[in-house]
Design a protein that fits this description.
mainly alpha; two-stranded antiparallel ribbon; 8 helices; single chain
Length: about 240
């Protein structure tokens, strides 16, 4: 079990963002539908284009450190995605990447701290707080949950997104609707929940791979020991006869 001290490198974050791109592609129509009720009806399409570009960039020139993965992804989102989504998600990932620095391996606890810095930067950029019916309603509890586990982060993000339904929007385009924004789930909080769901799934796949690798190594070692024991048993009679 990951206690927050197990380390991982850049490849883990590349897989995370690739899985996120797949989730956004899969959920793009739903995100756009949510956005059509209280926004510009472009959230799904914008994020789909942005994270596809992120995946392509990381595949062509894989960064060597976790921090570089996130700063590269953030920069790509800002340059590719229009509207508010690009600057907000780009700021989240860039600030997180800068917080991680140049270390080649990080822990879940360090990732939580870095994403916390990213969330603070998003809050400052948009002037929003928890309860304003924005992506922060999912991001803030998710980062707190990440300090405990990947699963806790995912659960908190998904609960935070659902909790935006009864809220009145106080920031962003949705705020122009006033009371009419009540009863709709915020698209930004919903896409933020996808981010942490993808992270949890990546961590689960990583743990399964590690367990399988360990099992295979142990099996090979046991097989080698059995062959050695068998060889020793077969040679004993010959030594006795000599």
């Amino acid at each position: 079990m990951d206690d927050g001290t197990e380390t991982f490198g850049a490849d883990f974050l590349v897989r995370w963002l690739a899985r996120l791109a797949e989730a956004v592609d899969r959920e793009a129509d739903r995100l756009t539908e949510l956005d059509s009720a209280i926004g510009d009806a472009d959230h799904g399409a914008n994020l789909k284009r942005g994270f596809a570009a992120v995946t392509d960039t990381l595949a062509k020139e894989p960064p060597e450190t976790p921090g570089a993965v996130l700063t590269t992804a953030g920069r790509q989102l800002i340059s590719t995605v229009g509207g508010a989504s690009g600057p907000l998600y780009g700021t989240l990932l860039r600030r997180a990447g800068k917080t991680l620095g140049d270390g080649e391996r990080i822990t879940r606890a360090e990732l939580a701290e870095a994403l916390g810095a990213g969330v603070a930067a998003v809050s400052q950029l948009g002037g929003a707080q928890v309860g304003d019916k924005t992506m922060l309603d999912a991001l803030v509890p998710a980062v707190e949950g990440l300090r405990d586990s990947y699963g806790a982060a995912r659960t908190a993000a998904e609960a935070g997104a659902l909790a935006t339904v009864p809220l009145r929007a106080r920031k962003g385009r949705a705020s122009y609707l006033g009371e009419r924004s009540v009863g709709h789930q915020d698209p930004g909080a919903t896409s933020s929940a996808l981010l942490f769901a993808a992270l949890d799934e990546t961590a689960g796949a990583n743990a399964s791979y590690s367990a399988d690798t360990s099992h295979s190594a142990n099996a090979s070692h046991s097989a080698g020991s059995t062959r050695t024991d068998s060889a020793g048993a077969e040679s004993s009679p010959a030594q006795g006869a000599a």
